[in-house]
Design brief:
The chain has helices at about 10-20, 25-35, 35-45, 50-60, 65-70, 95-125; strands at about 140, 145. With about 150 residues, the protein is mainly alpha-helical. Helix 2 crosses helix 3 and helix 4 crosses helix 5.
Length: about 150
């Protein structure tokens, strides 16, 4: 098995590395993923890049993440994989997913509360009294608020 390339690309380096580490010959790879031996050979020697379905087949054959192979083949960038999918509807989430979501939100809330408390302490805002209109009504001699009703 020759892993030397004449027109070396990121894909050819990646593929050569996988083949070397796992001791796979070009003919074995080609037969396993359903391409001609010359096609698989061109990936190594001519620097050609397979289509995305072949990239997926190579990744699965070597037990590597498909996203990793797509990056090496030039179909995606690592930055593009940072895309965050919209959240799932709660009814379509598993209990474990819901629990993780709740834990994350509680952690965010705790952090927010700590930040607010620290800001109030630093600015002295926590010691200011509210103006009378913003205070809750007091109970005086069994009566509530300004109406005097029980």
């Amino acid at each position: 098995m020759s892993t030397q390339t004449t027109n070396e690309t990121e894909w050819s380096k990646y593929l050569a590395s996988l083949m070397t580490v796992q001791g796979v010959k070009n003919s074995e790879l080609a037969d396993a993923i359903g391409v001609s031996r010359s096609t698989a050979g061109n990936w190594l020697t001519k620097g050609t890049v397979p289509d995305w379905k072949q990239v997926k087949a190579v990744a699965l054959y070597f037990g590597r993440p498909i996203s990793e192979a797509l990056i090496w083949a030039g179909f995606l960038t690592a930055e593009e994989l940072m895309y965050v999918a919209p959240p799932l509807a709660p009814e379509s989430m598993s209990n474990e997913q819901l629990l993780l979501l709740l834990q994350d939100r509680l952690a965010e809330l705790t952090s927010l509360r700590e930040t607010v408390a620290a800001n109030e302490t630093a600015s002295g805002a926590g010691k200011e009294k509210l103006p009378p209109a913003d205070r809750a009504p007091k109970t005086i001699r069994g009566r509530q608020g300004a109406t005097g009703r029980r």
